[in-house]
Amino acid sequence: MAQHHSSSANARIDGAGSEGKIRAAHLLVKHKDSRRPSSWRETSITRSKEEAIQMLKGYEEQIRSGEKTLGDLAVSESDCSSARKRGDLGFFGKGQMQKEFEDAAFALQPGELSGVVETASGVHLIQRIQ
């Protein structure tokens, strides 16, 4: 019978009770120097890192102005396969993401949006969900 009982931390189906984990969404723009310069959107990405950053800053302006949400933009503009989930990466803990991404995501409060974050994958906007 005890096997069917769990602590409140394990009882949440969505994983929110997972100690030390956060949930975030992101929008990724890859560039020609990204570790894998291709995506579901483009088979060969040739834009420069500077162009990718400028694109991302434009998306950031749209999000901060309330014109669009990160999820709205991620669906059509993100080079990550998480685009189909509106950029949602689910819950993750320390050591599961690239260090630059992890540091930025864990520094955010729920609902907060990062500025441009650079990783080996490309450039990201990150929004902490929980």
UniProtKB/TrEMBL annotation:
Its EC number is 5.2.1.8. One of its GO terms (molecular function) is peptidyl-prolyl cis-trans isomerase activity. Keywords: Isomerase, Rotamase. Transmembrane segments: none annotated. This is Peptidyl-prolyl cis-trans isomerase. It catalyses: [protein]-peptidylproline (omega=180) = [protein]-peptidylproline (omega=0). GO terms for biological process: positive regulation of transcription initiation by RNA polymerase II. Residues 24-45 are annotated as: Disordered. GO terms for cellular component: cytosol; nucleus. Residues 19-130 form the PpiC domain. The keyword Membrane does not apply.
